[in-house]
Specification:
The structure is a homodimer of 205-residue chains. With 205 residues, the first copy, chain A, is of the alpha/beta class. In chain A, helix 6 packs parallel to helix 7. The termini of chain A are far apart. Chains A and B meet through helix 1, helix 5 and helix 8 of A and helix 1, helix 5 and helix 8 of B. Bound molecules: nicotinamide-adenine-dinucleotide (2 copies). One nicotinamide-adenine-dinucleotide (NAD) sits at the interface of chains A and B. Chain B binds a DNA duplex (30 and 30 nucleotides) through helix 3 and strand 2.
DNA sequence: CACCTTTCGTGTAAGATTTCACAATGATAG
DNA sequence: CTATCATTGTGAAATCTTACACGAAAGGTG
């Protein structure tokens, strides 16, 4: 049941999870339907049912899905039952925003440490954390067994830093640097480049 | 030629453009091939050729693509020949990072104004800009004919702010708020939620 | 010039994803 | 208890996307 599930399906699960959490917060109802969820997300109900059916039968005919139960199941599928420690590399503007962002904790992640190579930044307090020198990066990541990192450093140092992180055991990497990164098989990479996103939209304007 | 081009193809053009710019910066060569470009991006050469062929014939057999020429063509296709003015809404941590980011200018966008509703933030200097009160938002956006906006405000005010922006004439919106937005037909929306991206990766860990 | 190498552009095949549509199931109301 | 209604889970069809493979062009070489 766990094999062979298309990436594109996995990619939608976090969206479902996020909307289920919103539904739970609204607190108006204990259950929802594929139709309601789809309507709220601009996705067809059939797609939602098909996606979920890859993992089991979570709904009930006539009633729909129990919001709490489906939330739990999706959290389990996405391995969010316990928190992932995350390392942030780069304590500039973006690192600053990330360190202060409180939207990670209740969704399965905790910023566990933040690194910089600028002596001026090292030691500075950021949110709950203190900026660490990048020379300690390998030691701390190995010691805390950190598997997830966020890159918020300039593009020209992103690839070498990626290599260091992977070498220290990081398996999932979200990069804000506007550059394609090369990683070994088995390491996940994801990118966030606002300019790419804007450029995708201007075509249609 | 302009109709019927799949969104997924449009979505890759900015990636090609970004890598072409890097190649130009490296300055080692005047031309590149679909094979080289694909190799650098982890995309098949056939896909690159097929994607480009939707818009015309930009290459030369035996030689490949002239980097400068292809860059120009892609910029034209994506409507990046002249700069788009961009409004940033929300002068918090993220708005701060965006206002100081110098990676927009050379890729077709210019942050033209930044808004906040917090009297403490209004008037503050951010990068080259001064934070404007959100009450002036409609006036300024209409006056400058701004079509592109970035949302960096809390989730619960994101939908009403979207409605205001769309009403003022915004046609493309990049939102950092972790919530699905509803917009009228013809308005483009794009999202950036790092938690969604991390959750997509933890499944594979 | 004849030959070789490179690389494009593209028709077609293969594969992936979405949509359709319906039997089956559970809830509800009279 | 039966009829009605809502909604799931899922094969099959339709659509979309990627990969393959090759003829044709361009440039270089002897
Ligand atoms: N600011 C934005 O809104 C924004 C938006 C999109 C993308 N980005 C990208 O995100 C990245 C960071 O952006 P930023 O605005 O925070 O930049 P920034 O210059 O404010 O911060 C970068 C930080 O990285 C540190 N650094 C540099 N080399 C390092 C190394 N080898 N090891 C550890 N730390 C190192 C610097 O000391 C600095 O503190 C850049 O790649 C940028 O292109 C930024
Ligand atoms: N900080 C991060 O790293 C990060 C990461 C991902 C997503 N986000 C999301 O991005 C958004 C902004 O995050 P942030 O960290 O900058 O938050 P922030 O609290 O630092 O900034 C939000 C700003 O929006 C302003 N604001 C609130 N309501 C407004 C309104 N109606 N009109 C105009 N301005 C208004 C506030 O005054 C504040 O200055 C949030 O939705 C957050 O969930 C943040």
């Amino acid at each position: 049941m766990a094999t062979d599930i298309p990436d594109i399906v996995i990619g939608r699960l976090p969206i479902y999870l996020r909307e289920l959490t919103r539904l739970a917060e609204e607190g108006k109802q204990k259950t929802t339907s594929s139709h309601e969820l789809g309507h709220r997300l601009g996705i067809s109900s059939a797609q939602i049912r098909k996606d979920l059916s890859h993992f089991g039968e979570f709904g009930k005919q006539g009633t729909g899905y129990h919001i709490g139960y489906l939330t739990e199941q999706l959290s389990d599928i996405l391995r969010l039952s316990s928190e992932w420690d995350v390392a942030v590399v780069g304590a500039g503007f973006l690192g600053h925003a990330l360190a202060h962002y409180n939207g990670f904790l209740d969704r399965g992640f905790r910023i566990a440490c933040i690194f910089d190579n600028d002596p001026q930044k090292v030691g500075e307090k950021m949110g709950e954390l203190i900026v660490q020198p990048d020379t300690d990066l390998e030691k701390i990541i190995k010691h805390k067994q950190i598997k997830v990192a966020i890159l918020a450093i300039p593009p020209h140092v992103a690839q070498p830093m990626t290599d260091r992180l992977v070498n220290a055991g990081v398996k999932a990497l979200l990069s804000y640097a506007p550059i394609h990164l090369t990683v070994p098989e088995g390491v996940q990479v994801s990118y966030s480049d606002p300019v790419i996103q804007l450029q995708r939209m201007t075509y249609y304007l």
